[in-house]
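pipeline/complex-builder :: batch 7 item 3
reading input block
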Amino acid sequence: MSGKIYEKEHQIKYYECDTTQKMTISMLLNVMLHVSGEQSYLLGVGDRVLAEKGLTWIILQYEVKIERMPVFYESIKITTQATSYNKLFCYRSFKVYDTQGNLCVTVNSTFALMDVQERKMVRVPAEIVAPYETDFSKKLIRTPKPEKVNEEKKTSKDYQVRYLDIDSNRHVNNSKYIEWAMDTLDLEFLTTHEIETMTIKFEKEVHYGQLIHSEISSMKNQDEATITAHRISTEDVTNFEASIVWKATV
Amino acid sequence: MSGKIYEKEHQIKYYECDTTQKMTISMLLNVMLHVSGEQSYLLGVGDRVLAEKGLTWIILQYEVKIERMPVFYESIKITTQATSYNKLFCYRSFKVYDTQGNLCVTVNSTFALMDVQERKMVRVPAEIVAPYETDFSKKLIRTPKPEKVNEEKKTSKDYQVRYLDIDSNRHVNNSKYIEWAMDTLDLEFLTTHEIETMTIKFEKEVHYGQLIHSEISSMKNQDEATITAHRISTEDVTNFEASIVWKATV
């Protein structure tokens, strides 16, 4: 693993937490992306430099492993590192530590560059990634695939995309898919279970005004843990898939 | 005006901004409340101390005046001061400054204490407010009332309360009402207008699973500025009212 490591402290605010006072996964991913965005900015390859070239980063995949989700008012340290890249994909890891140095969360992610006008992925230019001092490797990294929704056991909810779901990339912010996926679970389940691992795949961007169809199915793995599989679609196009392994807290 | 002033720097993150790269009003109010919560914590009367007494702060009213809404990656300074209190109400002001010291936003707010079990307002105990060094004044402060929704010209949208709308007070977070109110406006209007002033009144808390009815009507004032009036209700109970004076940006 190569690549400069960047780190930042973050104090958890009440509005980043759910009713159990734990930080939400969607807010954690938002904060992490802010930290990697800051590293890019400080290395001279921030969002504005990319925008001048007509480019923006998009996220294709997250693999999340949670040892302990940090809670309200806790100070955490987030580290991030661009670990390798190839013709089309850039791999980046994030780690979250508490003040005692315990590892709380690990996230491995896959990024790509999108041409803002064409809305299409482009080859990664060497000058954009050079400042991170990350190795080029022809090898594609095999990333785990989310479990598929069981068509016979699924339930669903519909959502209309709102103005505040849209970010400066003029599409739905990544964290919103996670909110739509989580909202298919009921309050009783969400207040008595925690995420252990989560695999997320972003397939196709969603725009303002679209109608979102959020599907879920649930099963048990060999350890009797609940696994939920999620799919978000718009007019039969799959935009997002994810699966979550849960642990009971009570 | 009496009361200790507390201040804090804040750097604006991309996920606190809308598609125009300006900070959203709902996120600004979230961040402001974090700052006043931190003042309370540092003065020894934080949320946990209140919770031990079975109490929590609730917000009844906001009056917002925006000179310029800060933008992505800007550093702002937020100051807050408890300005006076009486038997039931505590008044607190917030100011937001940019790095050149220009005043960007002023917010005057009215708080009260709620008994968490009874879900009712209680008399403000002297020992809770003493650390802020704020004057007691019998006089109730007259706060402006939001414009009423015009019943003959109104339109509306419905929303289901989601798990992530609920905060650690086990009711809908204040910022969510503002999001439901704003979402009744269309993309074209929101990207060509900015909030100049906003008057917000929280009437009655909303809980998980409730169906939200968000109404809006629009009119012009004597300066030809657009004013929108908003009401949020659940089963004919009014939970929230607000009005906004807008300025065109193009």
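note: Chain A is about 15% helix and 40% strand.
queue -> next item
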